[in-house]
Amino acid sequence: MSELLEARGVSKQFGGLTAVNRVDFSLSAGIVSIIGPNGAGKTTLFNVFTGLYAPDEGVVTFRDRPLAGLRPDQITALGICRTFQSIRLFANMTAIENVLVGMHSRVRLGLWDVLTRGPRFRYLEPEHWSQAAKLLDRVGLRASANDVAKNLPYGDQRRLEIARALASEPSLLLLDEPTAGMTQGEARTLMALLRRLVGDLGLAVVLIEHNMRVVMEVSDRVTVLDHGEKIAEGAPREVQADTRVIEAYLGRRRWDHAAG
Amino acid sequence: MILHAVAATALLALSGIAVAVFPRSILAFLLFQGSLLVVYLARIPNWLRWGLLGVALLVLMPIIGAYNGYYLEVATQVGIFVALALGLNIVVGLAGLLDLGYVAFFAVGAYSWAIFGSPHGNIAFGGAAFPLAPPWFFAFLLIGLTVAAISGVLLGLPVLRLRGDYLAIVTLGFGEVIRVLANNLDKPINLTNGPKGITPISRPPALGLSYGEYFYFLVLLIVVVVVLVNRRLEDSHIGRAWEAVREDEMAAQAMGVPLVHAKLLAFACGASFAGVMGVLFAAKQVFINPESFTFLESIGVLAMVILGGMGSIPGAVLGATVVTVLNLQVLKGFSLWLNELKNAGVTVLGYSLADLPTQLEPAKYERMIFGMILVLMMIFRPQGILPARRRQRELG
Prior knowledge:
The complex is a heterodimer of chains A (260) and B (396).
Chain A: E1 5-14, E2 17-27, E3 31-35, H1 42-49, E4 57-62, E5 65-66, H2 72-78, E6 80-82, H3 95-102, H4 111-116, H5 119-138, H6 154-166, E7 172-176, H7 184-201, E8 204-208, H8 212-218, E9 221-226, E10 229-234, H9 236-241, H10 243-250, H11 254-259
Helix pairs in contact in A: 3-5, 3-6, 5-6
Chain B: H1 2-21, H2 26-41, H3 46-67, H4 69-94, H5 103-116, H6 120-125, H7 136-159, H8 164-184, H9 211-234, H10 237-247, H11 249-254, H12 259-285, H13 295-308, H14 313-343, E1 347-348, E2 351-352, H15 366-380
Antiparallel strand pairs in B: 1-2
């Protein structure tokens, strides 16, 4: 079976800094976590996958289709959607409106339908709203549907970002530190939700995460990046025992720290 | 509720009578305008609200116009600016694209009818086919709309990557380019007749109404259509995409909003309203020249949007009304009143008003008062008079 998402030899440089260096990455299903110290190039890799950055080298394919030259919105329409490390909701719009914006690439209405409010519009628009309400239900935010996004508690904002990303009906969901700033309990609830989503929707998920307990519990596979390079890959247990990974996180000898 | 209904109806009726009894009193007319706002805001059933507003605008206003034709002219001007403010509201309020050259689209619409609807067309294109027959005016409402929308896209294309200050400066430049073009396109081909302007511009057949009434009703009709279009756009995936672009461009694109398409559509929609009103403005004024399309006009329309509340349709309507009435009536009226006092030789605290230098006439510092109002608004109510409210929905 061919891979859902496949990256071969992806590099991205910013000036003299190589943020991502010839990284191979692939997944076909389930939850794959990308971990690594700060500045390892995790988010840069996400930005390459979603078309925000064009890679300097290498190829990214989604369902065997190369993504080079596609705009972020086109990639979203193909079925990859993401959340952001720092929350980027549409702050002054309500929760349900945020989700509705996420549906944009699935809306099959034109300017004419909107202006005339013809039968197509009158049928599809309520459909969109009830679909959005269902998504809010799924992440447990139904009661806050009419609340302005910026007024929601932090954890709810994180979940709203996930609901908004789900609205584009992705087959691959990229989550950038979804549990950042959450308590261990909140993180567990979120991961249970994620598991359900993967089960119900047949969704593949790539997770950037610092919370190791979460990573080890939820991931099918783990990829470790350090200084833009992939240093380990495999089942959570294998990765945990990998000496290079331990070095990357804890350092090797004292003079390395002094030099670095 | 009943109390509100009775009070609103009574206020509207009273102020209508007041204008009829004192047709020269600005205060009475302001009271009438204020009562429209009260009716809009009162807690009354919607059928009553729109019924009262309909009666006021369709019946009372023309009657008032019969007593004092100038009021009808004021109302018509208000309508024109309401449409402009609503158009700019799409670009600035919804999509968050700061446009400082908006009046350029108004100019494009105005010149499109001015050139073809006046004998000047013969000079520009040769022959003797111009002015086109008056019924062509209605076709030109659509042509003006289209031409303005196209120029909106033309402006939009080069500025797609710009945001904030940079965008503001380029749009400002665009506005000036259009004005300077209008000023100088009398050579080598005399298209705009330069600073001398174009006259006489044909008017549409009046259908037995006076031109004052005719243009009033036409403006009212267009404003109603513009409000309807605005509401439908706002409450759809298109409007939501615009707001998403305003809130966070990058996130919007990552969620599947095609940025280029969304921005160009915002520019085109905003411009098209101005284009339609431009055509109408040219016909109403009979004469246009580049003076009507200066940078200050763009700023004026922007001030209306900000004063009313960015992204809010009732706000744009109110902002346009307040600014236009302030400019046309309140300050000028105050100057006149001061002059009357002067001529009557009134003294205040031993100081003869006749000695008051003419520089101190309120009409002369209309811009200053205007600026002060804006500054005070920004300090005390930055969201505008009638800010955009999030629609609350019952979810089935």
